[in-house]
Amino acid sequence: MFVDTRRVENGTVVETDVCIIGGGVAGITLALELEKQGIDACLLESGGFKADDETRDLYRGEGIGLPYHFSDGCRGRFFGGSSNCWGGWCRPLDPWDFEKREWIAHSGWPFGLQVLAPYYERTHALLKLGPYNFDPAFWEAAIGRRDVRRVPLASGKVRDTISQFSPPARFGKLYRDALARSRRIRTFLYANVLNIDTTGSAKTVSRVQVVTLSGRTMYVSAKLFVLATGGIENARLLLASNKDQPAGLGNGNDLVGRFFMDHPRLQSGSIRFTKEWSRNKLYDIKYHYMNAAVAAHGTCIASQLALTPEVLKQERLLNARVWFSSVFPGEGSEGAQALFRCKQALLHKEQAGWNLSRDLFTMISHPVHTVGYGYTRLFQPRSLIRDVKFQAIVEPEPDPNSRVTLSSSQRDRLGMSRVEVDWRPGKLAQRTFDRTFAILAEEMQRTGIAKVVLDPPIEGGEWPSSLEKEGTWHHMGTTRMHDSPKQGVVDRDCKVHGMTNLYIAGSSVFPTAGANFPTITIAALTLRLSEHIAKELRSASACFSKGTLVGANLQHSPAPVDEQPVSAKTSSTTQPIFFVPANGK
Ligand SMILES: Cc1cc2nc3c(=O)[nH]c(=O)nc-3n(C[C@H](O)[C@H](O)[C@H](O)COP(=O)(O)OP(=O)(O)OC[C@H]3O[C@@H](n4cnc5c(N)ncnc54)[C@H](O)[C@@H]3O)c2cc1C
Q1: Do 345 and 407 belong to one domain?
Q2: Beta-strand (E) ranges in 460-570?
Q3: Are 531 and 578 in a shared domain?
Q4: Ligand 1 center to residue 303 CA distance, Å?
Q5: Confidence category of residue 40, pLDDT binned at 50, 70, 90
Q6: Nearest Cα to 268, choosing from 420, 78, 459?
């Protein structure tokens, strides 16, 4: 059931078993699982069913240090969260991503891949992926095309890997009906959590304060609380909830917001394939995404190259993934960029400040580039490829100085401090780019696949201007997991150290991030968390009494949820809701 918080009576207190904050991939996954377990929960989501500018503005913040964009278009603040704009790349982390590698400071998870494996398997239904199989030989055979072939890799230094594409699953749309029908989950839209209130020397969360942009306030009290607002906001909410703990909740060891990570992404080099390999689509991003040629079992896939774990160890490198990117005429021109934005808009991708008339004007002003680029993107004629480049993402090195903090001067419309993000991808990441490209080039030349001209190494210098300024939109690490409270914000069960009933879901708990895209791991961790929560509630059930609804019967007469945001003036209809414990206390 959905409730429009703007229509809830001011000062209403809602009681539930589990309060989930944030309706993105993690929050919706958890809500769906709790429903299956028969657990009552409230899902509090800042936005509505569609993006709106006022809500989006709450995400605005400042990148300090290295240029870094993380607001508009780099995350989505409405029902479904950033799944409203994600690309759908999915691949579980590698086994060694979980290990402590002595050449990478602060590396390692409290558990290994085997703990997450059963949950990774279950994410395939959730994310609408193909068979739970990432073996390149399996996919090559299943596709069975001459132009989708694995390259020979003889040296033992390089390996090929498979990623699967989710369609991509837009969680807000995909699971809206299930949550609307739910008898256990009440989803509050336009519900911005402003503060997490605690008792018992900030050890136990008593309730959260919810406010709407139209000026309503509501409180939700629960037995357990789960923060699922994304890799930056999870830290922001903890830091901003500083009434009882001046440094912020869970921040007794000054770790919240530190170790912020994103995957640095670079294009580099120039690759000339031999005739035999020049038509191969398996590793080229321009031939991926919904391309029926690179698909089997109803699933689009992509292959990327990586160094073997032996080489990573020997050379003391971070993990990395590399693919090719063909360059077509007109690419990068203003007309091409305008055309690309229009395509994104057609796909309902979130793009702040997008203006159709302006882009149409740009395209008309640059007809040759626009039409040329459009034609080549549509038909991808091999004969028109101007160049082929490496494109790589590298595992970020966990660094306590790479961090999210609260701004001392900037506040959003709700009065919450905005964030400042100081992203530091690190020197080891630079060396990893250099060595990965060099070893790959050597391999491709030795096997006669291609001739490669490398760009100059970047180690020790400034990051090149081609470094993508929004990273890869993967915000991770700010509430990292560690068995010791001195080294992590949450424990292995995603519970905040030192607190009795506060959990965190999402990539902010990743202690190390590997070089794969994070969402499948977020989903796997959340499935695991749902089991833990169900167990904890069951074992504590003797101590709790169940909440019962009095007042308006929300199961049958929810306040209507508008598609359009309404201002304070128009949100006059109120629906009083009260929950009291069954024992009347
Ligand atoms: C352009 C783009 C492309 C991407 N491509 C990929 C990809 O190909 N593969 C991949 O694995 N990942 C990709 N990602 C990353 C992926 O989208 C995220 O990893 C994933 O969505 C994170 O899920 P989440 O639930 O933790 O956070 P989110 O999806 O960000 O959800 C957080 C939710 O919390 C809500 N919220 C925030 N603050 C509050 C508050 N104070 N009160 C109440 N609610 C609040 C937000 O409105 C939002 O709905 C991409 C991201 C972007 C932006």
Answers
A1: no
A2: 502-504, 547-551
A3: yes
A4: 24
A5: very high
A6: 459
